[in-house]
Structure formats: C-alpha cells, structure tokens
C-alpha cells in the first residue's frame, strides 16, 4: 500500500519547497499544543507545536469552544455570498473587531496576503478620491514581509524578498532602511534613547518628504518584523512614521497579521507606540487557525473618502468574503483572548528558557518579545538537521535563514515553554555547536 508521503511526493507543492524535495512530516493527529507526526522512515513523534502552525493556532488544536462554534454554524449554513446579503456571524465579528481596534469600518478578506492587497487598493482609491490620483506608490521598510501575492510582494523587502524574480509584475516602491534594533527584558520592550533611532527618523523624514507627491501610504509591520527576521524595533520609530504620514497627508497602513491579538505583549503592536493607523490588516490568529480569514479595518475619514468617490465602493469582492463559518469561529477565538497576562507569562518563561542559548558558539543573539522567541545564529541554519534534532527532543520548529524561533500557542503551559526552550537550545547545540 502506497504511503501518504509517497502519494504526496511529486503531486503537491509545499511552501518554498521543490516537488522532489525532502519529504514533509505527515500529521496523524493534533490536540491541545501537540502534534502526532510521522516521518518518511515511519518514525513517530508526539511533539509540542512551537510554531502555532505559522502563528495562527493560538488556542491549540481541537479547542472545545472553537469546535462548538464550528459545529453550530455548520448546522445553520456554512457559506452564502456576501454580495447583497449579510448574516449574524459577519456582523458580530465586525462589531468585535471595531471595538478592539477603535477602527469603525471592516472589510473581510480571504487571507492575510489578500488583506494587504485590499489595503493597498484602498489607499490608492482614497488618494484619488481626494483629488490626488498621482499618489499611487508606497513607502515600506527594508526587512519587511507582507505576503506572497503581487501587490504584497511589492512592499516586501526588495533584496531579500522575491521582487527580482518577477520583473514587470511587481511594482517598484520606496524603502526606508530597516529600523535599529530595540532591547527587551523578559519579553518586554525597554525604554531607549538611541541616537541611531534619531538618525533613522531623520532619514525617514527626508525620504518621504522628497517623494510625498507620489506616495499613497506608508506600510509597516509595527514593532516586530516577522518573516523578515523576527526583528524588534523601537516604538519611537512607529510614532515618527505616524507623524510623518500626517505631515504629508499619507495613510499609515499597519500590517498586524502576525503581531495582532496579543502576540507582542500588547493587544496590537501599534499599541506599544500609542498610535492609531489609518488602515489595519489582521489575520492569522483571527480564527485560531481553524479557517482562513483576515480583515482590513480603517478610520471613518478613510471610509468617507471612498464613499464620496465616483465609485462609492471599495473595489474588491472575493467569492468567500465574510464566510459565515470562518466568522463564527473567529468570534469564538476572540472570546478566548485574555487581558495579556498569558502572553506576559510566556514572554518571561521564553526569556528564561532560551537564555542558555546565548552561551552557544553558533548563536549571535537571543531575543524575546511577548510570546515570540528567536535564536539567531551567526550563519545559515541547517533546517533539516535542526528540525530533526528538535523533534527528537519533543518539539516541532520550522527554522528559516539564520533563525530558530518559536511562537507558542497561548495555551502552552509553563512546562511546555520550558520544553520548547530546551529543545531549541539543544538542537542548535547538537547541529551547530
């Protein structure tokens, strides 16, 4: 009988992997924070998922509240078109998101990347509605990542991203240098007065001022750049970008897809700087990893500009927009979030658990912000070897570039966090020294 992994090989593309690349691990089951995995050689691993399935399964697997919400909505209806129709799950979710963010208008999108596309289109529409159609470029940050769709790729890092592979398809945008690094203690940002930050802000002011007449919006991952390297930067940079955007009547788009819903130790990463963006994108943890869903939220001023335009509508409308099943589960997921005490605990425990990695010869830096922990090596990670070494220690990780990192589920216990830290440290020591 042909195995699942043999059937997969050459049939399915996996993210950033060749069809004939190394075999993935087969998931045989999942519950709580644990995955039951099978390797190509038949070996089985019962492991803690230190990745929250790429940062979305914040409540773990088979959570009874989320299961119940999904079952209840399936018994009503799983999907209806959103064009000309509405339903309770979408309205309830939008009300909750508006209350949490202070942004009163909501567009429900299919995924995080699609929400970025919608945000970019929204910014261009708003500038045109205000009589400035020439403002259709964007200013983003080096080191940023906003998704793999065409518009989103255009505002990702122009060197380490995928721009060069798609000439003529991806737009040419403007980029500020990556902001200076911030310091944290026990997963909490520390106050800073780094002169490098002052110089960075001055450079940002100069670049935006020079191109403001063509710029629709600034696009940023607030405080934490995720897939670009788990880079933590000072909130003061974000405060400055808000001021710069206001000075030139440019929108500020906050990509909170990875950072929202408490991951960085604040409800949203913009809260570290005390700023309100014009547009915010959220996703990933929104449904607790059960279904794909994202949202774009905006201020009344942004929404009114669209309403007063000749089109009067935001020109986007996916087939599965406002999917009732996803919306119902999302509302249940948001109901499980606490006031931040859980993430604060995980941050303290991650800092302690990953601390010993600083003594390894291969390690350049260890940093923790909220429920995010990263061990940065001095060179590239041997992804396959570190993954296997961590599996043998009872933890699933997915390293990339020079990083072995973790974003544990919020339901992780103190023992779980300690096990994650020990596995990452031990795997790095075994493979890289």
TrEMBL record:
Keywords of this entry: Aminotransferase, Biotin biosynthesis, Cytoplasm, Pyridoxal phosphate, S-adenosyl-L-methionine, Transferase
Keyword Nucleotidyltransferase (UniProt): no
Record site: Participates in the substrate recognition with KAPA and in a stacking interaction with the adenine ring of SAM: 16
GO molecular function: adenosylmethionine-8-amino-7-oxononanoate transaminase activity; pyridoxal phosphate binding
Class of the enzyme per the UniProt entry, highest EC level: transferase
Subcellular location: Cytoplasm
GO annotation, cellular component aspect: cytoplasm
EC number: 2.6.1.62
Pfam hit, one: Aminotran_3
Annotated catalysed reactions: (8S)-8-amino-7-oxononanoate + S-adenosyl-L-methionine = S-adenosyl-4-methylsulfanyl-2-oxobutanoate + (7R,8S)-7,8-diammoniononanoate
Cofactor annotation: pyridoxal 5'-phosphate
Biological process terms in GO annotation: biotin biosynthetic process
Chain positions recorded as substrate binding sites: 54, 145, 284, 317, 398
Residues the record lists as N6-(pyridoxal phosphate)lysine modifications: 284
Pathway assigned in UniProt: Cofactor biosynthesis; biotin biosynthesis; 7,8-diaminononanoate from 8-amino-7-oxononanoate (SAM route): step 1/1
Binding site for pyridoxal 5'-phosphate: 112-113, 255, 318-319
Assembly description: Homodimer.
The protein's role, per its UniProt record: Catalyzes the transfer of the alpha-amino group from S-adenosyl-L-methionine (SAM) to 7-keto-8-aminopelargonic acid (KAPA) to form 7,8-diaminopelargonic acid (DAPA). It is the only aminotransferase known to utilize SAM as an amino donor.
Family as reported in the entry's similarity comment: Belongs to the class-III pyridoxal-phosphate-dependent aminotransferase family. BioA subfamily.
Record-linked NCBIfam families: bioA
HAMAP family given in the database record: BioA
Protein's UniProt name: Adenosylmethionine-8-amino-7-oxononanoate aminotransferase
Taxonomic source organism: Pseudonocardia oroxyli
Taxonomic classification: Bacteria, Bacillati, Actinomycetota, Actinomycetes, Pseudonocardiales
Gene for this chain: bioA
């Amino acid at each position: 009988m042909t195995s699942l992994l043999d059937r997969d090989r050459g049939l399915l593309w996996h993210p950033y992997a060749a069809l004939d690349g190394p075999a993935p691990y087969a998931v045989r089951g999942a519950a709580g924070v644990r995955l039951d995995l099978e390797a190509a050689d038949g070996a089985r691993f019962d492991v803690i998922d230190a990745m929250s399935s790429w940062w979305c399964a914040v409540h773990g697997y088979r959570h009874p509240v989320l299961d119940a919400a999904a079952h209840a909505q399936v018994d009503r209806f799983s999907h209806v078109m959103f064009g000309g129709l509405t339903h309770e799950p979408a309205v309830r979710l939008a009300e909750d998101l508006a209350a949490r963010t202070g942004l009163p208008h909501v567009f429900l999108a299919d995924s995080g990347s699609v929400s970025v596309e919608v945000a970019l289109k929204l910014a261009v529409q708003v500038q045109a509605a205000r009589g400035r159609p020439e403002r259709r470029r964007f200013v983003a940050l080096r080191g940023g990542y906003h998704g793999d769709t065409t518009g989103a790729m255009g505002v990702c890092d122009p060197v380490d991203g995928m721009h060069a592979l798609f000439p003529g398809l991806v737009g040419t945008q403007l980029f500020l240098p990556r902001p200076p690094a911030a310091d944290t203690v026990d997963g909490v940002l520390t106050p800073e007065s780094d002169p490098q930050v002052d110089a960075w802000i001055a450079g940002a002011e100069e670049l935006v001022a020079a191109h403001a007449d063509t710029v629709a919006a600034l696009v940023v991952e607030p405080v934490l750049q995720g897939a670009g390297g788990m880079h933590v930067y000072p909130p003061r940079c974000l405060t400055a970008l808000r001021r710069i955007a206001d000075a030139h009547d440019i929108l500020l788009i906050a990509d909170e897809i990875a950072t929202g819903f408490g991951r960085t130790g604040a409800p949203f990463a913009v809260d570290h700087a005390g700023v309100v963006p014009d547009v915010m994108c959220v996703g990933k943890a929104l449904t607790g990893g059960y279904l794909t869903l994202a949202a774009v939220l905006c201020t009344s001023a942004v929404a009114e500009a669209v309403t007063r335009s000749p089109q009067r509508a935001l020109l986007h409308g996916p087939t599965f927009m406002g999917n009732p099943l996803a919306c119902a589960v999302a509302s249940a997921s948001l109901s499980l979030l606490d006031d931040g005490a859980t993430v604060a605990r995980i941050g303290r425990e991650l800092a302690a658990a990953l601390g010993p990695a600083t003594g390894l010869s291969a390690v350049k830096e260890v940093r923790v912000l909220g429920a995010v922990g990263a061990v940065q090596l001095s060179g590239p990670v041997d992804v396959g070897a570190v993954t296997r070494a961590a599996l043998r220690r009872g933890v699933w990780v997915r390293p990339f570039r020079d990083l072995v990192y973790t974003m544990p589920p919020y339901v992780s216990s103190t023992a779980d966090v300690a096990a994650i830290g020990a596995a990452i440290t031990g795997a790095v020591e075994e493979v890289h020294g």
